[in-house]
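Changelog-adjacent note: as of this version, every example in the card shows the full chain rather than a window. The one below runs 202 residues end to end.
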Amino acid sequence: MRAMPAWRLRQARERKADMMQALAFFVSTIGWLNTVIGRAFAWLSLGAVLVCFTVVVQRYLFDTTQLWMQDLYVWLNGAMFMAVAGYALLTEGHVRVDIFYRPGSVRRKAVLDLIGVLIFLLPFCAVLALWSHEYVARSWRLFEASANPGGMPGLFILKSFITLFVILVSLQGLAMLGRSVLVLSGRESLLPERFRYGGNAA
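Full-length structure tokens:
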């Protein structure tokens, strides 16, 4: 069996290096995207608290209420949780049963992330995307509003956050796959420190 010529071996190595660079760029870009969106939409929690406080003051001090405001703080809360889900995944903010994960080495974490994303996360996102598509599309066709008399218009916009959730979490799942590949290939150093295992992505 002939040995591969040196120039072809060099080309293969260069292609692999280029692929690893592109993968690191993808992981970093998705991390940056979810960081920007997560931090921006996290401010909705303050809005929800202020609106809820206003509703309570109106009800118990002035014996009045605005139904649209009752919708608004619930909707703000729902939009926030949908929009920051990818950021929470990036910063490991989701609940995790990590008996084997947290004390594990970086390579073990990479393998567990690889398995978890492929078997659980991406299939879950695919199922949610399929089942929610008609639900969101119908809401847009109807320009659905709140079912409460005098409630908020634009419920179809809130329901669109389900689609945003699927996109952001799926992208972050793919970024986790990319990071795992880089770790298992010994190329984690291509990633900025904040997007590596143990990095301060927050």
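Structural remarks: Residues 10-195 form one domain.
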